[in-house]
Design goal:
43% of the residues lie in helices and 11% in strands. The chain is α/β, with parallel strands linked by helices. The protein has two domains: 13-58 and 300-440, Aspartate Aminotransferase, domain 1; 62-298, 3-Layer(aba) Sandwich (Aspartate Aminotransferase, domain 2). Strand 3, helix 6 and strand 4 form a beta-alpha-beta unit. The model is unreliable at 1-10 (pLDDT under 50). It binds pyridoxal-5'-phosphate.
Length: 441
């Protein structure tokens, strides 16, 4: 299983003796590292296209910023589980958006959904079942806690999603085993999602084996057609919906995430609340008040999301088409802001230039053309598979949002718009395509 070794064995040996065995050798997550490396190159005067980081480029909507301003004076610790009005807004959000009845007393607020995922694994001892490619932090979190992880590789042909029959096969081997299955859709790193029938099939398997589903829907509102459907619709009794304001509301740095539990899992919520009380106490008070405004929704937020989706759909589609022309295998994205191309068909040409792994590919792309992307290996794919994650949002989100507002609404944004307003991403993709073309000539 992959680990990130940042510390040279001979360095800091005295300090490392006392490190927990599960933590030894663990380095900051790959997304953070690539950003730091890119910043180092930029500081040294290099031009770098930052397609490595998974961060929304769009501003936090003005009404939400206004709510934060109005609540800057909130200074007291809040309830561990989260401000009750915010929990009500989150429950209402899930009902409005996902058609899933949710009870405010079953919502847990934390400083990012990532932290809640960690606490969940502290509280729950079962296996973590994760289809790959998967988001970078699920597996390291389990490793830190010494939990058993079961990785289930998905394929390009399956749209990188978890086929229900594979989950069934896995559970059949040991039906009573406690498991949490993580589903992430629209997906990081693949930008894909499940269709309705597959969600229903997954729900049926989960019900058969009484699995807990952790449904990571942090990109739900960034489904490019606004058609996200939660698996909780089909398996409400065993699904925890993970959400937050980091992606659709552009507020990653504000650090607020939410878990919404079904009544049957109240015991897990209670355990996690106890852990929260002993660790972070409560999430930042002004941020909780501002997040309430975000979850309440309304026309201003819908307009913002409509424009954001229009931009992501047009740019994601353009990038996929352009990359496909190199011979790469790539799907048109359905949500979020990622692409997960497979450059396997270019393997011979790349090997002739000394590139045989996804890490070498990314390292060379950064060094030779200044394009920062992440290797598939970081998403638990085999190291010699030439997949990479590419985040196509290296642009000034505020400016692009304004420009989109100035175009006729309803119509898709054309290539001219993308070349003018999303020039850095366009240039990065062109540079990558030209470089790959040279490699495979
Ligand atoms: C798939 C996925 N899940 C969860 C998170 C964590 O988000 P946060 O802790 O900001 O809520 C991220 C952030 O990158 C993500 O991409």
């Amino acid at each position: 299983m992959k680990r990130h070794f940042a510390v040279e064995p001979e360095q800091h040996s005295e300090d490392r003796v006392s490190l927990n065995l599960n933590v030894r050798g663990l380095a900051p997550s790959a997304t953070v590292s690539i950003n730091e490396e890119s910043n180092r190159l930029i500081a040294a005067g290099r031009k770098v296209f930052k397609l490595g980081l998974g961060q929304s480029p769009f501003p936090v909507p003005e009404c939400v910023v206004e709510a934060l301003r109005a609540n800057a004076h909130q200074k007291f610790y809040l309830e561990v589980q989260g401000l009750s009005e915010l929990r009500a807004a989150v429950a209402e959000f899930h009902w409005r958006n996902d058609g899933v009845p949710a009870d405010p007393s079953l919502v847990l607020v934390g400083p990012g959904s990532k932290e809640l995922m960690f606490l969940m694994q502290v509280a729950y001892y079962g296996d973590l079942v994760v289809p790959t490619p998967c988001w970078v932090s699920y597996v390291p979190q389990a490793q830190i806690l010494g939990h058993h992880v079961c990785l289930v590789p998905a394929s390009f042909e399956e749209g990188w999603q978890f086929p229900a029959d594979r989950l069934d096969e896995l559970c059949r081997e040991d039906p009573g085993r406690p498991r949490i299955v993580v589903l992430c859709y629209p997906g990081n790193p693949d930008g894909m999602t499940y269709d309705l029938q597959e969600l229903q099939r997954l729900a049926a398997v989960a019900r058969r084996y009484e699995l807990i589903l952790l449904s990571d829907e942090i990109y739900g509102k960034l489904h490019h057609r606004g058609e996200h459907v939660s698996v909780a619709r089909f398996y409400p009794e065993g699904t925890i919906v993970s959400s937050g304001i980091s992606k659709w509301c552009g507020a990653g740095g504000w650090r607020l995430g939410t878990f919404t539990f079904p009544p049957r899992l109240r015991w897990l919520l209670r355990a996690m609340t106890a852990l929260a009380s002993e660790t972070f106490t409560s999430t930042s008070a002004p941020i909780q008040y501002a997040a309430m405004r975000a979850f309440q929704g309304g026309p201003e937020l819908e307009e913002y999301l409509g424009q954001v989706r229009r931009i992501l759909a047009a740019l994601g589609g353009w990038c996929a088409t352009r990359l496909r022309a190199t011979g790469a295998r790539i799907h048109d994205p359905v949500g979020a802001f990622y692409l997960f191309p497979d450059f396997g068909p270019l393997a011979a040409g790349l090997a002739a230039h000394g590139i045989t792994t996804s890490s070498e590919l990314c390292h060379r792309a950064l060094a030779e053309i200044g394009v920062a992307i992440l290797p598939g290996e970081e998403f638990q794919r085999p190291e010699n598979e030439l997949t990479v994650r590419l985040s196509y949002v290296d642009f000034d989100g505020e400016a692009v949002l304004q420009a989109a507002r100035g175009t006729p609404s309803g119509a898709p944004l054309g290539d001219d718009f993308l070349h003018t307003h999303c020039a850095r991403t366009v240039q990065a993709i062109e540079a990558l395509c030209a470089w790959l073309g040279e490699m495979s000539a």
